[in-house]
Amino acid sequence: MNLAKGKKRITVSVVTALMMVMVMVPGMAFANTAGNTALSQTSQNQGMFVNYIDASVNSKDSRIGQYGTTNIKQYFFNGADIEKENGGMADDSHPYVNSYAYNYSIMTDTSVSAYWDNYIQGTLNPTQPIKFGFFLGGSQTAKCNDQIMASNIIPKMSIQKTDGTVVLTGTQIYKGWKHQRLANGGGTGSGPLRGFDVFLEIPANALAANTQYVLVFESGMGVQTLLDKKIVFHFSTDAFAQSISLGSKVTLKEGQTKTLKAAIKPENVKEKAVTWTSADKAVAVVDSNGEVKAMKAGKTTITAVTKDGTNLKASCPVEVTPVIAKVSLKAVSSSYNRVKLTWSKAAKADGYTVYRYNAKSKKYKPVKHTTARSYVGKNLKTGKTYAYKVRAYRLVNGQKVYGSYSAKKSIRPVPSKPALKVKAGKRKATAKWSKVSGADKYVLYRSTSKNGKYIKASITVKNKYTDKGLKKGKRYYYKVRAYKVVDGKKVYGKTSQLKTVKVK
C-alpha cells in the first residue's frame, strides 16, 4: 500500500517509528547499521508498507497476524503527532482504534533472513518541534518502570548523522512513557500488558536543514530481552532557502507586463513559494505569480520574500516609462528672417521641446521648451535652410521623460507673401499690394490668360504700380512677389494670389 493512501492527520509534523521486540526470538537480526543501504532500495520495499489502522480492524488480516504473538516483527511508521487517549481501550475486533495513531507499518516475518534499513518517508521541518514515538512490545515489558527507562531505554536512543556522529542523545529527545497496549486475546496473550509507548521530541532548530540523519535504537535496548543489533531509521530534514535573487533592473512602458522569476538556492528547497510586494502600487503592481504590471510613469521596487520561514529577501528596481505620442510637425516661413512651427497634441504631455540642427556639431540641439504647440524661430538668415524636430515630454519625479522625435522638417525664411489688389481703369490697371518686411523690391507679373505666359510688368521698390497702354475690353491677370538680396543673390518670397481685371 502506498504511503500517500494511508490515513494521515492534517496536523502531521513527522513520521513516527514504533517497534515490537520479540521475546522468544532475541537472536533475530533487525535492521542494518546506518548508511549501508542506498535510498533507491526504498522504492522496491514500498509494497511492504501497511496501513496499520486499516489492517488492525480486521483480525483475519494476514499482514498483521495474531496480536501479541511472537512470530511477527513489526516496525510501525506513524502518520500523525502523538495524540492523547480518546476514550479507553478498544474491544477485540478493533484493538487499536481508540489508541495512539500509528498508521504505517513495515513487517518482517521470522522467515525473512535479509533485512534492510528503514527510511522515514518525506522530509521533516527542523524549524518546528518534531514529535514522534514508538511502541516497545513483549510480555516482559509489563515490568518496565522509570528506573529501567533511565538505565536501559533512554541511553540507547539517539539522533545521529549518517557518519555516526551523535547530534542529540536519548536524554535530549525523551519526553516520557506510558503502558498502553493490551493483547486482543489471540495467540498466547489474553489480557496482560504487552508493551508501552515511548514519547520523543526533537527540539526546534536542533537539526540542520537539508541534511540526512538517523534515529538510532542501539543494541542492548529492552526490558529483559534485548536487541542484539542497532536499528536505524533514516530521515532527512527539509532544505531551506539559502539565497534568493530576482535579477537586474526592469524597465516597462505604461500598460506593459513582465513576469519576474525568483531564483532560490539550493535547488532542492522544499518550499519554493515567495511573497511578492511592490513598494509603490501606483507605479506598478505585482501578483502572486510575480507578474508585474506597469501602471504609471515612475520608479518602484518589487520584493520577493521566501515563505519557508527563512524570510530571505530579494529586490528588483522597476522603472515605468510613460507612453508619449510622437507629434506631427509642420513648418512654414513667416517672414524674411522667421519661421513658424506647429505640431499635433500628445496626450498627457506636460510640454514639448523644439530642436534645430547645428551644422558644426552635426546634432540637433534644443532651442525651446514650451507648453504651447507652436514656435517661431527668429533672427534667421533669409534663404538659409534650417532643419527642425519636436518631441513631447512628461514630468516624472521632476525629470523630463521624452517621447520619440517627430519627422524632420526643413524650411527657409523668405519674404512674406504680399496681399494684392488690382483695379481696372481706362486702358490701364492699377495694382496695389501690402508691404513686405525685409523686401528690397517687388516684381509684378502680368498675363493675358490665367495659365498663360507671365511677363514682368514692373520691378519696383514701391508697393503700387499702374500698368498703362492696355487694350480696351481685354482681361488681364496679375500676381506679385517680393525679394531680398542676400550675399548678392535674390531670395524670392511666395507669390501673391492671382488677381484678374477687365480693362475699360
From TrEMBL:
Species whose genome carries this gene: Hominibacterium faecale
Domain Fibronectin type-III: 325-416
Species lineage: Bacteria, Bacillati, Bacillota, Clostridia, Peptostreptococcales
Pfam families the record matches: Big_2
Signal sequence bounds: 1-31
Domain of life: Bacteria
The entry's keywords: Signal
InterPro entries: Big_2, FN3_dom, FN3_sf, Ig-like_fold, Invasin/intimin_cell_adhesion
Protein's UniProt name: Ig-like domain-containing protein
Membrane-traversing stretches: none
